[in-house]
Amino acid sequence: MPLCGKTMQHIMRTRQFLLGGGLLSALAAGAQTRPNIIYIMCDDMGYGDLGCYGQKLIQTPQLDRMAREGMRFTQAYAGSPVSAPSRATFMTGQHTGHTHVRGNREYWRGHLVKSLYGNNDDYAEGWVGQEPYDSTHVILPEILKANGYTTGLFGKWAGGYESSHSTPDKRGIDEFYGFVCQFQAHAYYPNFLNEYSRSAGDKGTRRVVLEDNIRHGMPGSEDYRLRPQYSADLIHRRALEWIDKQSAERPFFGIFTYTLPHAELCQPDDSLLHQYKGRLEPEKSFRGDAFSRYHATDRAHAEFAAMVTRLDVMVGEIIEKLKAKGFDDNTIVIFTSDNGPHEEAGADPDFFNRDGLLRGKKRSTHEGGIRVPFIVRWPGKVPAGIVNSHPLAFYDLMPTFCEAAGIDNFPEAYKTKSETVFDGISFYNTLLGRDEVQRRHEFLYWEFHETDMMALRMGDWKLVVERGRCRLYDLAVDLHEDRDLSAEHPDVVHRMADIIRREHTPHPLFRITLPENLP
User: Fold this and answer.
1) Which of 258, 329, 309 is nearest to 70 (CA)?
2) How far is 289 from 294, CA to CA, in rounded Å?
3) Would you write out the chain's pLDDT as a tens digit for each of its 519 residues?
4) Which of 163, 213, 297, 473 is the 20 to 30 A CA-CA neighbour of 278?
């Protein structure tokens, strides 16, 4: 809902308080010597969808090379099994028992505007997007911007609807191009994208109409595939242009939240798609879902595989751009996925991950829903060719990036009230090959209200809570989470359930069933 004037004044004072103190000291300390950071978070890629993680059917040479040149993690976890809350844990440094955004709460429903884009219906400007981030809790781009970094975000925002207090222009982002609303990203040939450029003098995030697209119908129409403006390519091109504009005078922080390979399964009919056509049999068909903006396809396997390879090409182009600009040796590049693999719009993760290594998919707190690929490359700093089993979660990235950037007053300087919580632990020592001094989590935590699931990992113990029922697994010998050991180890269940109750803060929008009926 629209915010009153007093609320907006409070938000602006909070922003000034959070962002006003760090810039001059950072610049005086020589910000140009600090590493640039490029964080690439793709959408709904499963743990086993890359060659370097065991994928046999999809070609990913650039990411496989990135893994050889850097560090590949085998126990990295998303913040949530779905998009918006997973991104929120990255942005806030909080797990989903503490962070405000814990689900994909939508604001677009009921705000359809007729014939706004050519003959195509779309949703009302100002209401498209998801639940906003807490206005009083600082987020990662705000911290880095306050400490001398240039910031850019290209891809999905999902941290607030268009007219909310939490849009990219209001949350520390200097340049943005992509989707404010993750639902809009369901269509790869959309009616519009969103844009903001501080350097161009923009006053706020605005819509950019894709004029060549709106001449044709929406997903489900016969001429939808005649739309020529493919959002994934447009976003990637703008991200490369942004890197091109950077200089060695000031460090930069790029958040590349690319939409590939999330549904819909649709892309240009080019050489990448031809590489897989007819080669992933038996092929799978999908009838389409106009409400969800998923277009029909009779080649779902080929589409998905080509989308992963397209993303792989993009990562290679990012690294080559850094090399061409002379940034390669001083840039941390991270690649990961926001959650586990999806089954939407005809996607078929069981076909591509036939070993069945992990149980569960997107929306599940079993390992398959939250364990994700995670690769870090930083030539000369991160040891090359290392496979690391350090357990980490997305909320660890805030303290890690702050330590890499030399921000030594985190988190104390960014607590706006006594109860402000940051849950992450920096894994900077692990990145530099200093595992022997790396601090580790006592536990990792997840909750997701839509499926009424929670999970806690403590060492090799994994407690999964579904509608209040507890199941206990030993991941050291049961990675697929098949054998419930709760009856054999009631003391462990009770200890872990107590941690969940302690860590969970009630939320009126995202209700969850706490552990009950304990052994």
Assistant:
1) 329
2) 5
3) 344 444 444 444 445 444 444 443 444 344 468 999 999 999 999 999 999 999 999 999 999 999 999 999 999 999 999 999 999 999 999 999 999 999 999 999 888 898 899 999 999 999 999 999 999 999 999 999 999 999 999 999 999 999 999 999 999 999 999 999 999 999 999 999 999 999 999 999 999 999 999 999 999 999 999 999 999 999 999 999 999 999 999 999 999 999 999 999 999 999 999 999 999 999 999 999 999 999 999 999 999 999 999 999 999 999 999 999 999 999 999 999 999 999 999 999 999 998 889 999 999 999 999 999 999 999 999 999 999 999 999 999 999 999 999 998 899 989 888 788 999 999 999 999 999 999 999 999 999 999 999 999 999 999 999 999 999 999 999 999 999 999 999 999 999 999 999 999 999 999 999 998 787
4) 213
How far does the chain reach from its first CA to its final CA, in angstroms?
44
Cα 184 → chain centroid? 16
Q: What's the pTM value of the predicted model, to 2 decimals?
A: 0.94
In the three-class reduction of DSSP (H, G, I as helix; E, B as strand; rest coil), residue 194 is classed as strand
Beta strands (DSSP E) in 317-383 are 331-337, 374-377
Q: Mapping DSSP to helix (H, G, I), strand (E, B) and coil, where does residue 121 land?
A: strand
CA–CA dist 517, 519 (Å, integer): 7
Q: Which two tokens stand for residue 123?
A: 């949703």
- Cα–Cα distances (Å) from 220 to 262, 295, 296, 306, 452, in that order, read 18, 5, 7, 21, 32
Give the span between the Cα atoms of 271 and 304, in whole angstroms: 14
All structural domains of the chain: 5-440 (3.40.720.10), 452-519 (3.30.1120.10)
b/e sequence 413-450, b meaning 16+ C-beta within 10 Å: bbeeeeebbbbbbbbbbbbbeeeeebeebebbbbbbbe
CA atoms within 13 A on the CB side of 1: 3
